[in-house]
Amino acid sequence: MTFLHWAILFPFLFAFMVPFLYKTFRKIHTGWFVLPLPICLFIFFLQFLPGVKYKEGIVQTVKWIPSLGIDFAVYVDGLSLLFALLITGIGSLVVLYSIYYLSKEKEQLNAFYVYLLMFMGAMLGVVLTDNTIVLYTFWEITSFSSFLLIGYWHYRERSRYGALKSMLITVFGGLSMLGGFILLYIMTGTFSIRETIAQSSSIADNGLFIPALILLLLGAFTKSAQFPFYIWLPDAMEAPTPVSAYLHSATMVKAGIYLVARFTPVFAGSAEWFWIVSLFGIFTLFWGSFHAVKQTDLKAMLAFSTVSQLGMIMSLLGVGSAALLFDHFEFYSVAILAAIFHLINHATFKGSLFMVAGIVDHETGTRDIRKLGGLMSLMPITFTIGLIGAFSMAGLPPFNGFLSKEMFFTGMIRVLNMDVFQTETWGFLLPVLAWIGSIFTFIYSMIFVFKTFAGKLQLENLPKKPHEAPIGMLIPPIVLASLVVIFGFFPNLLAYSLIEPAMKSVMPSLLKDGEHFHIHISHWHGFTAEFWMTVGVVILGIFLYLTASKWKRVYDLQPKRMTLNQLYDHSLKTAGKTSNRLTSFYMTGFIRDYLVYIFAFMIMAVGATMIIKQSISFAADDAAPVGIYELILSIVMIAGSITAVLARSRLTAIIALSSVGYSLALFFVLFRAPDLALTQLVIETVSTALFLLAFYFLPELQKKDKTRRFRLVNFIISAGVGGIVTLLAISASSERTGKTIAEYFLETSYSLGGGYNVVNVILVDFRGFDTLFEITVLAIAALAVYSMIRLRTGGKDVEENGFKNE
Amino acid sequence: MNNNIIILPIIIPMITAVLLIFFNKQEKVQKYLSAVSSVINIGISVFLVHYVHTNGIISLEVGDWKAPFGIVLVADMYAILLVLTANIIVFACLLFSYKIVDYNRSKFFYYSGVMFLLTGVSGAFLTGDLFNLFVFYEVMLMSSYFLIVHGNSKPQLRETIKYILVNVISSALFVISVAFLYAVTGTLNMADLSLRVAELGSSGIIAAISIMYLIVFGLKGAIFPLFFWMPGSYQAPPAAVTALFGALLTKVGVYSITRVFTLIFLQDIAFTHTFIAWLAVLTIIFGVIGAISFSDIKQIVIYNILTGVGVILFGVSTMTESGLEGSVYYMIHDMIIKGLLFLLVGIVFSITGTTNLDKFSGLIKKYPTLGWMFFIAALALAGIPPLSGFIGKLKIVQGGFEQGEFVLAFAVLLSSLLVLYSVMKIFINGFWGEEKIPQVLETSQVKSLYVPAAFLLALSLFYGLGTEFISSYIKQAEQVLLSPDLYIEAVLKE
Amino acid sequence: MEIVTSIVAGILFMTATYLMLSKSLLRIIIGTGLLSHGAHLLILTMGGLKRGTVPLLDEHAASYVDPLPQALILTAIVISFGVTAFFLVLAYRSYQELGTDDMDQLRGNDQK
Prior knowledge:
heterotrimer; B: mainly alpha; two-stranded antiparallel sheet; 77% helix; C: mainly alpha; Helix Hairpins; transmembrane (chain C); Na(+)/H(+) antiporter subunit C (chain C)
């Protein structure tokens, strides 16, 4: 176990201690105890920065289940380090923020930090591990910690609803991803990601390649809320705002992005990957930003914005994957550069904006923009942070968002230069949708900051009297906003320390050892197409923002009944109802119905087998001769059994049954089985007595109202059963083997067993073990009968039964 | 290799049961004696597992009559692992029963019934003779009739009738199938049967008989479409009994199918095993549909038994290394987790007096431990890593993919989602939410009920996190299933 | 002869099944009785009928009938007797508590 492994496990271990800290130190907010951990982890990860610049990456393994090829292998390269820093860095800020956001009197703090720490550790595990199964494990742990965090205020129905929704969708994706991982394993023979990457060229032609690709992308798209799986993210906003800032904007939802980035070397170069990732991404960008504009809840707006921005990054990864096909790859790998850069930028501005939303909510008591406005003067610092964040989000200079937006446009425009995968025909979609999506991004960014802080102050609509937030709550967003500014002015700080190593992880095959990507990010490139696109965005954006009321009606075009949310809700409800109806339909509680199903199955299965496999045979040469006594006895038996069926009175039925039993005893005599005959006689007599005794207490046989259909079905089934049994018996007799183990018994019954009566010796010696337990069965039956008669619980046993007592 | 110890896991419970009959009026004796016997049995099982691990398959010719003429008890790793798990489950259920079962019931031989059930189950796992299997089935069934009806409440009486009827039919079918097989092969010993059936080659009558066996064991193991008796019969008795049944009884059916279709009926795998694969997936589907149909938490877990059976059988049907290994992993996990879930259901019932989800919610406030135990158990049931169900499911799906059964294997994988949904519903609606508890019974006693549940939960956690420790045992179990020669050698070449 | 007894056993199974599919508990139990008889007859048939004489070694005969199925049947008879006894008492107690022996009315579905 190295320090790297401990880095991942520490949050889990610490999570165990949190409840104790909470109980013992009631006076101090538990968050203060938790805060040092992410900070230390951040510093710990910083030390790897210089290393990933030059080396291949650092691998350390600890065995978990080596016999199955599942190792807790940890791998630090540019991409994983980038994420690790994000997770721990933003994690620290979020924990600090939460100390002021969550009141220590009112909230169940121990639960909150346990879930949060679990999430942190699991997320680190996802990005740092090299083993796909371990990745899946941590992936699901993030799903569940997210579930618990969304449902944190579980007495609220919306929270429970949101938690369930997120769980169902992300676990569905997780399972698909696992399916993809298993397929990859079958193709490559390993669970190690690095080794899979090494084999990427050899599996490209495998029939399982595309299915694995699709399954993997299902996992990525569900986690990163791409269309159409995004519907869980807005409902996830039920979680406390620190959670929204952390999981649902900066880290967990980026796990899908991580997955796509990490597996790009495996799947890049295939047309399916290019188109699926790019198209879903760009459409999500558009769809998310389009819907963000119409939201009235600040957090919902940010949620849709996140969906949209994730789409943007996703599309960039898709477009950039084609760089593999070109010699002059740096022209196209700018898309990957943009993706990674925007990953960082998005974390900074979105995190700050969520915190701003949280502050507004905390101080005013509402997040509804219709009720907000004019807070600029009351919360100047918050306003400034919000302005910086929103302008960066809109893609305005001099902030970092502007830089990555420009590169985004560059990447999309350059698609028009590619002529692979039929980009000549369809490639234009990408820059067009990119541009349209950016317009709406601009609009909602403006809405966010101006509707909240500018305009008229509506004190009467606000539940609380607003004032500036406490300094502790302001520090984290200030830090993030500063980063927005710093990265905006000095983008190349990150270029070779963080971004380039990450790019190397995404496209390792493009560079030879020691080579580097050339990165230079600047604000001004001249009057390029990207420049004019941005100008267009701003102009159209301002125009649409000001004329908003005129065109907002376009949102009503989509009927309420046809939204994806409705689809989800409807599916769940229908699933429950249909299942209920189906199950209640065949589970009637009437034992006869169950027997009909069972017998029908038996007849069909055995019958079909007999026909297909030609089991039926008829060899009469070995058969015993038919004697006249046996024939008469057979007729008596048949007559007796039919009488039992047709009998009207209980007595007749019982006597008919006995007659069959006694005939059987006579059969035993005729077929040379005297012991059997004796036993049968005794048992039959006792049974008859029992039958008479029991039936004395039971009611008379009624002529039941049985429909013709009822009786016909019974008849057919019975005939089928009888027929099958007879056919099997005849066929088995015909196939009889000559040598049985009975020879041994006949030979040794006297010599070894000490008895002349072979059957007896078998019963008590050769197979005495059987007899011992046969007697045991009788004993248990006796106990059972005794307690059935004597045990009276008085009927008031609410304790034991699942049913409500009558 | 001969070893008399093999008979102990069968004999000790039986003797205990008989002794308990005599002391039925002394409740303390009942409890101590059964507990001590159970612990001893666990110890012996552990010893046997270790012994088989180092020495290979061991067998005992009862009465010293040579196989295949006499009855043989065979302890291969698969059987003995199941015996060990069964004993652990019984121990946990006993601990649970001590707190819940009142004097009245214990006077009427409840604990003897449990011990007899264990006798039957252990015997079924360990026997190497087909008719002896029938006899042990009857011991097991008779005990189950006893336990289901014990208490004589109306639902119990009603459901026992249906349960007995189905089992009488299955017993009759069992006995004639043994007869058919005897006629065609001339032997009752399983290893010998394997040899003789192999000699016959592709035989039509053997194929038909194998389907008969599938039906017989399927009736016990509750596969589609033979499971209809189960939801009612398992709902009626108290939770501790349902835990025993859900964890043990159906598993004996699954074990028998596995044993018979990996040892004896190997001539027509394309036909028989594909059939089993389809039935297995249908079982999963119906199990999952049933699980999301109802709001009664006991019914939800009962229908999940079906799903578990389907998953295990699917793994067996693939006849690949991964699939068989996975089914062994999953079988043991399923026994533990079903026992655990039913015990938890029992605790909920003690607290609220009902198992209907619509009637209670918000339990987590007063009973956080219970809530978290349930949460983890639910995750384990759905096969979420790193808990106990994951490895088994992973291997089974892998086995399915390897066999080219992509659609079926993927269905197995996706079933986890619906399983998760069905039990998470219990957590979300029963433990989360506003506090609403219809009636509170004996809160002080409730905490002591946690112990057996926690014990099983710890076991499940260890099973998931510490899989490496048991992987060599599971591998050994899987080897016997894949290569029947190992079994035949151990039994017949004495 | 085996063919004849197979057919007889088949008819026994048929009537037994018909009875077990009925609504009345009495008929069902009688059906189970017939079922056992049919099964036992079948086991005997499977051992081969009249292959030799009674399996008593002091007969010193040339060939004997197969003794193994006879032993199996004996065990089966005893076990099914135990079950039948239990079933009968169960029917008695159920009628006492539930007041009916009509399986159609004993569905227990109102609980769901």
